[in-house]
Amino acid sequence: MPLVAPGLVATALFCFMFSWNEFLFALILGRSKVVPITVNIAGLIGGHEILWAEISAVSIVASVPIIVIAIVLQRYLVRGLTLGAVKG
């Protein structure tokens, strides 16, 4: 099990990143009252104006969890990605 842990952590991080950034699924199948933060960013672009400050702020808030999790799991991520490398 200790040999499998870095690979599982790397896979879990990638799965979290892909599910966090799933825009089309949330846009098409989501309800109008419940919108994820990525769909909310697209909603800030109006017909006559684009709210650049709000888009920047929400983008930073949306990217903080991914960055924090990647920093915390960086040791396992590098170990899991290089564990299968061929030495020689």
Query: Approximately how much helix is present in the residues?
Result: 55-70%
Number of domains: 1
Q: Which whole number gives the mean pLDDT?
A: 80
Number of strands: 0
Task: Output the keywords.
68% helix, elongated
Task: Please explain how this structure is put together.
With 88 residues, this protein is mainly alpha-helical. The protein has one domain (5-82). Helices cover 68% and strands 0% of the residues. It is built from 5 helices and no strands. The protein has helices spanning 5-20, 23-29, 37-43, 52-72, 74-82. Helix 1 packs across helix 5 (74-82) and helix 3 runs antiparallel to helix 4 (52-72). 3% of the residues are buried.
Strand and helix map with partners:
Blueprint: H1 5-20, H2 23-29, H3 37-43, H4 52-72, H5 74-82
Structure described in brief:
By secondary structure, the chain is mostly helical. Helix content is 68%, strand content 0%.
